[in-house]
Amino acid sequence: MNSKQKVIRVKNMYKKFGEFTANDDLSFEVEAGEIFGFLGANGAGKTTAIKILCGLSYPTSGEISVAGFDVYNERESVKRNIGYMSQKFSLYEDLTVFENIRFYGGIYGLSKSEINSKADNLLKKLDLEHARDKRISALPLGWKQKLAFSVAIFHDPKIVFLDEPTGGVDPVTRRQFWDLIYDAARSGITVFVTTHYMDEAEYCDRVSIMVDGKIEALDTPEKLKKQFNAADMDQVFLSLARKATNIE
Amino acid sequence: MNRFIGFLKKEFYHIFRDKRSMLILFGMPIVQILLFGYVISTDLKDVKMAVLDHSKDEYSAEIINKITSSGYFNLTDNLKSLEEADAIFRKGDVKLILVFEPDFGKNLIKNTTANIQILTDATDPNMANLEVNYLQGILQNYNVEINRGKKVPFAIQPKTRMYFNSNLESVFMFIPGIMATILMLVSAMMTSISIAREKEMGTMEILLVSPLNPLQIILGKVTPYLALSFINALVIVGMGYFIFGVPILGSFTLLMAETILFIFLALSLGIFISTISKNQEVAMMLSMFALMLPTIILSGFIFPIRNMPLPLQIFSHIIPPKWFIIILKNIMLKGVGIEYVWKETLILIVMTIGFIGLSLKKFKTRLE
User: Fold this and answer.
1) What is the mean pLDDT of residues B341-356?
2) Over the Cα atoms of chain A, what is R_g?
3) Is A92 in Cβ contact with B14 (below 8 Å)?
4) What phi, psi does A86 have (nearest 5°)?
5) So what's the pLDDT on residue A244?
6) Interface contact B10-A58, CB threshold 8 A
7) CA distance B6 to chain A (A)
8) Where residue B260 falls among pLDDT bands split at 50, 70, 90?
9) Domain range spanning residue B305?
């Protein structure tokens, strides 16, 4: 895949709710195969932006294309080419591991044989073969999370959006989870991830930091640290977030 | 289409794996019917009846003989004219009068058809129905007996008339009420809870991000409940008919069509409730207070509407089950066709469209 190819282009994106401007003139691009960190305090407008990129909500104005498709007119094509996972993990607790995989594979139009062979590979990779017919409710949190991520990219999307995927998970599991993210990026899937954890920001190829609906910084973690004269991303984030007015 | 079937499969798993859902779906209707049915009905034994025999021939004598020897009925009076009927019913002992037309036997031989009229005291409509059913059963048996070996069969045609309560309006007409309650419960409440659950668990977002469009998602969510509600309706009507003798005098097709219309209405109500509730608890409380209580209390199911204070009578107009119960009673108990219930049907259709419209609007504003 051409590394210069831009899979997400956002130009002058605005989203207003009445008087309140949640996204204020956002412009950025994400390259194919990149791990893009989308950072910001609660209420900074991350979720609003991610919803627009996923086709869950319309922007007020701006030019936005995702996976090469326009979010206004080609939503169906956008949806076919993206995966999404939120911090709720989004698996059905009363269905078994395989039933969840089959269901999500099915709604993306994968054939039965495709689903079966891919599910076998996936379960082998995650070391979950023994749990194939166990209900999700019986799995530990770390497994649920890994499975949720694998299900989100089961249909080989071009981009996967992860909305605070590691919330409430212990550090070891988080580390393992990031191994999965690296795997996905290596196989050519672009990863667009929001997170609260600044150590995770270091794992990203590039990060953007949003404050009060605006992108205040966007670069590689190394360059940002240099720019703000900071020892780690935590300090970068703090020096920017101090300016914020509408933190929840 | 495959996607949709996958979706339905998942929905059925949710239902069949949840004990509470299963209990509501299949336990409730049966328990309710048995409760309502048996608490109020007793066995038929020695029901006092009178006969008005205009014909006095061997056939009428034989029929009276059959009836009195059945053990269900006791002949207490022989009337001379129909004028006495009212007075004898008012006295309260006699519950049933059998009237043979003049030349009953002759008509049967000559014209192969003869008429019997059954008059009942319908102040206790459930008992009245039961009595009529038993009596018709005896008449039918006799009819079969005398037709043995005949080329042109005789037909004894019983005609029933309910005294004092010809509309059979009563608390005891429980089948329509139970239908409305159960369909509300299954279609509206369970649908709203199941959609709210997807919202609460975050799976709704995943579905909306997927290539499924909102219409497919909603159809996938409601179709299983549509199917299960319909099965429930059949069970209720069937139990009413076979166990308690609640008749279906009108067209069965029309009855089922109206039932499906009401299920659609309840489903659209369920969808609407789910759009305004954040989680399962809210959906459940809203369904309980906005749907179940009015359905039970204000629809005319348990308390007759005409006995309510005027403000409540007016309020009952906006309660969808009220109209459905009227339709059911008309079709099942009076045997009328669509020409008598088109107004109520129209009200249900308008309400359905209204709730679907409201839900769509709510859904769109969330997207904007």
Assistant:
1) 94
2) 18
3) yes
4) -110, 180
5) 61
6) no
7) 6
8) very high
9) 2-39+173-367
When CB atoms are compared, the residue of B6, B208, B213 closest to A56 is B208
Chain-chain contact of B17 with A94 (C-beta, under 8 angstroms): yes
Number of inter-chain CB pairs under 8 A, A vs B: 75
pLDDT score, position A117: 94
Per the prediction, chain B carries an average pLDDT of 86
User: Does the model's pTM come out above 0.80?
Assistant: no
- Same-domain check for residues B31 and B113: no
- pLDDT band with cut points at 50, 70 and 90 for residue A2: very low
Which of B 208-267 lie inside 8 A of A, CB atoms?
208-213
Query: Is B199 within 8 Å of chain A by CB?
Result: no
**Which of A58, A86, A106 lies at the smallest CB-CB distance from B367?**
A58
Residue B168 lies in a domain: no
Query: ipTM for the complex?
Result: 0.87
User: In chain A, which among 42-71 make CB contacts under 8 A with chain B?
Assistant: 54-58
Token representation of residue B207: 């579905």
Same domain? B119 vs B188: no
Query: Do residues B180 and B262 touch, judged by C-beta distance below 8 A?
Result: yes
- Nearest partner of B236 among B207, B265, B256, B215, judged by Cα: B256
Model confidence at A104, in pLDDT bands (50, 70, 90)? very high
Residues B156 and B231 in one domain: no
Cβ neighbours of B14 in A, within 8 Å? 92, 94-95
- The answer to whether residues B109 and B194 belong to one domain is no
Q: Write down the pLDDT at residue A165.
A: 87
Same domain, B139 and B279: no
Residues A79, B211: C-beta atoms closer than 8 Å: yes
Are A95 and B13 within 8 A, CB to CB? yes
Indicate which CATH number applies to the domain containing B67.
3.40.1710.10
Give A159→chain B minimum CA distance, Å: 12
What string of DSSP letters covers B126-192? Answer: HHHHHHHHHHHHHHHHHHHHHTTT-SS--EEEEEEEEES-TT--STT-HHHHHHHHHHIIIIIIIHH
User: What is the mean pLDDT of the segment spanning B244-253?
Assistant: 85
Alpha-carbon gap, residue B112 to B116, rounded angstroms: 13
- pLDDT band for A1, please (50, 70, 90 cuts): very low
Q: pLDDT grade, residue B72 (50/70/90)? A: confident
| Cβ neighbours of residue B210 closer than 8 Å, sequence gap 6 or more | A79, A104, A107, A108
Question: Which residues does chain B have within 8 Å of residue A136's beta carbon, measured at their own beta carbons?
Answer: none
Please name the amino acid found at residue B226: L
Residues B300, B321 within the same domain:
yes
